[in-house]
Amino acid sequence: MSPEITAGLFGILGVLIGGLVTWWLQKDRSSTDFRIALEAIKTEHMAETAAKHFLSHQGYTDRSFELISKRLGGFEENELRRVLVRAGAIRYIRKDGTEFWRLLSREPEAIAKARAKSESIESSDDDL
């Protein structure tokens, strides 16, 4: 074989081996990065799931921010508010200044409860 062909074959062989080693190292590194990113997403997803659980309780349509922050520890206030918004909750401030949260999907239920309560107050006023 001529020296040019031998040099060409060794050059191609070197490129192929180098490419395979690079691919293998990158594959290993990307799977580690993927696992780390998945853990971060999992934490936030589980926090949203827990927030939905607390806000879906049958007896209570509303939960105070103070109670939610006690139950979902490990988050700063604004970070927890972002979690609640991603979970589908809305915030409102009561007349006494306390912050409460409710799932947007439970808004009609809360309105119906408020109407029933006001009607029962009005009907009790008629008895006087």
Describe this structure in words.
With 128 residues, this protein is mostly helical. The chain has a single domain, classed as Orthogonal Bundle (Arc Repressor Mutant, subunit A), CATH 1.10.10.10. The chain is 70% helix and 10% strand. It is built from four helices and three strands, in the order αβααββα. A hairpin with a 5-residue loop joins strand 2 (89-93) and strand 3 (99-103). The longest helix is centred in the N-terminal third of the chain and has 53 residues, at 3-55. It starts with a helix and ends with a helix. The mean pLDDT is 85.
Give a short summary of the structure:
With 128 residues, the chain is mostly helical. It is 70% helix and 10% strand. A hairpin with a 5-residue loop joins strand 2 and strand 3.
Note the main attributes of this structure.
single chain, 128 residues, mainly alpha, Arc Repressor Mutant, subunit A, three-stranded antiparallel beta sheet, 4 helices
